């Protein structure tokens, strides 16, 4: 898929939540939920944002839409600076930017009929009224695979997969160009997940939609994404086309995630990369590389705790934040000055090999 001018441009996005203590609510610290995230999304493209629970994926998606206000950074959509818009201008832009929430049960108002839920966006943005709005609601329900007569029913009468289809119809009602899909299938059964993912792909093909697809299930991501950004503790630590990331995972954290993907054949046992310790607190992140306390790279040393790794291009279009994976702009001399004892070397453990590796990296890749 060829993508030209970015539809969405995010630069150095941060979102800190204050930690308040005492009777007077004095601020004693900050939770760094999102810490300097940058990415682009082109028209018609799907960028997947993956990582463990609590890494800042959902907060990033909500901050892009200003459902939570960012602490700093910039967000441009179709050239407009979203963080500079007033309430009225932001409402007009939000017609083009929608969200499908993770939980299909709590994201729908139980006191509103399905028709009223889908019709609400049409009313707010004055896109259709009366019989024209009713016809549009019926059309949207059919488009997402629901019967038009379901418009008179209420959310409690539907399964989780059907409710998520209602959420998708609601997002589509205002003719958006960009949709944040915040773990839209994580609460659904596997068979229903496939149906919803296929529906999202069909809608993208027919409408030219762009998705920011937030997920932790890498098998789903491999199926739907064009590019993948991996988040850890509020940072993007790897960013690559989906084929490159699954065939040559470069950041040690990405390698650990891929080793946890179940094999399609139940008779095949996969090796796992077991990370040491727990995820550090975003209120007190580690110095240097935020992943260094749990890293399994054989060259990990004191330099990893002293140097903040830049997100640098390891191969064309493939970016990773690791000073121990070659090539790197952080010289061995700089690493030794920071206490480094092991020079950088390209390393991929066998357990992380989700696909066949490029032959140029075949010899150092296995343990």
Compact description:
This protein has 367 residues and is an alpha/beta fold.
Report on this model:
With 367 residues, this protein is an alpha/beta fold. The protein folds into three domains: 1-96 and 176-247, P-loop containing nucleotide triphosphate hydrolases (Rossmann fold); 108-174, no CATH class; 290-355, no CATH class. The chain is 29% helix and 22% strand. It has twelve helices and twelve strands. The protein has an eight-stranded mixed sheet with strand order 6-7-8-3-9-10-12-11, sandwiched between helices. A four-stranded antiparallel sheet has the order 2-1-4-5. Strand 1 (6-21) and strand 2 form a beta hairpin. Helix 3 (114-124) runs parallel beside helix 5. The radius of gyration is 22 Å and the shape is globular. It starts with 5 loop residues before the first strand and ends with a helix.
SS summary, helix count: 12
- Please trace the helix and strand order, writing H or E for each element: EEEHEEHEHHHEHEHEEHHHEEHH
Reported by name, the CATH topology of the largest domain is: Rossmann fold
CATH architecture tag of the largest domain: 3-Layer(aba) Sandwich
Query: Which structural class best describes the helix and strand composition?
Result: alpha/beta
How many strand units?
12
Sheet having the most strands: 8 strands, mixed
Rg on CA atoms, Å: 22 Å
Shape: globular
Strand order of the largest sheet: 6-7-8-3-9-10-12-11
Give the helix level as a range of percent: 25-40%
Percentage of residues in strands: 15-25%
Unreliable sequence segments: 356-367
By CATH, the superfamily of the largest domain comes out as P-loop containing nucleotide triphosphate hydrolases
CATH class of the largest domain: Alpha Beta
* Termini separation: 35 Å
The overall number of domains is 3
Mean pLDDT: 91
């Amino acid at each position: 898929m060829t993508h030209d001018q970015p539809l969405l441009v995010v630069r150095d996005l941060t979102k800190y939540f204050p930690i308040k203590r005492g009777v007077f609510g004095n601020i004693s610290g900050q939770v760094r939920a999102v810490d300097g995230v940058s990415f682009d999304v082109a028209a018609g493209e799907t960028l997947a944002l993956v990582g463990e629970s609590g890494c800042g994926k959902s907060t990033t998606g909500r901050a892009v839409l200003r459902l939570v206000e960012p602490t700093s950074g910039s967000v441009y959509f179709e050239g407009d600076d979203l963080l500079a818009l007033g309430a009225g201008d932001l409402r007009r832009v939000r017609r083009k930017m929608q969200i499908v929430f993770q939980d299909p049960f709590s994201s729908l108002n139980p006191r509103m009929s399905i028709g009223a839920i889908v019709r609400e966006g049409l009313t707010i943005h004055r896109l259709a009224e009366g019989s024209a709005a009713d016809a549009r609601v019926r059309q949207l329900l059919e488009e997402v695979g629901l019967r038009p007569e379901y418009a008179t029913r209420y959310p409690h009468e539907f399964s989780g997969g059907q409710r998520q289809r209602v959420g998708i119809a609601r997002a589509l009602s205002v003719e958006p160009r960009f949709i944040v899909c915040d773990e839209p299938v994580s609460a659904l059964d596997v068979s229903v997940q496939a149906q919803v993912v296929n529906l999202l792909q069909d809608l993208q093909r027919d409408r030219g939609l762009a998705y920011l697809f937030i997920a932790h299930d890498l098998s789903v991501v491999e199926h739907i994404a064009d590019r993948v950004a991996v988040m850890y503790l509020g940072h993007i630590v790897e960013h690559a086309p989906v084929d490159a990331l699954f065939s040559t995972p470069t950041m040690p954290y990405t390698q650990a995630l891929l080793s946890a993907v179940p094999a399609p054949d139940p008779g095949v046992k996969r090796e796992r990369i077991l990370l040491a310790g727990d995820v550090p607190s975003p209120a007190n992140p580690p110095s240097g590389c935020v992943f260094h306390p749990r890293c399994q790279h054989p060259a990990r040393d004191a330099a990893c705790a002293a140097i903040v790794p830049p997100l640098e291009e390891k191969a064309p279009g493939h970016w990773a934040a690791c000073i121990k994976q070659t090539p790197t702009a952080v010289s061995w001399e700089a690493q030794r000055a920071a206490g480094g004892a092991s020079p950088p070397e390209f390393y991929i453990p066998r357990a992380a090999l989700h696909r066949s590796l490029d032959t140029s990296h075949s010899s150092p890749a296995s343990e």
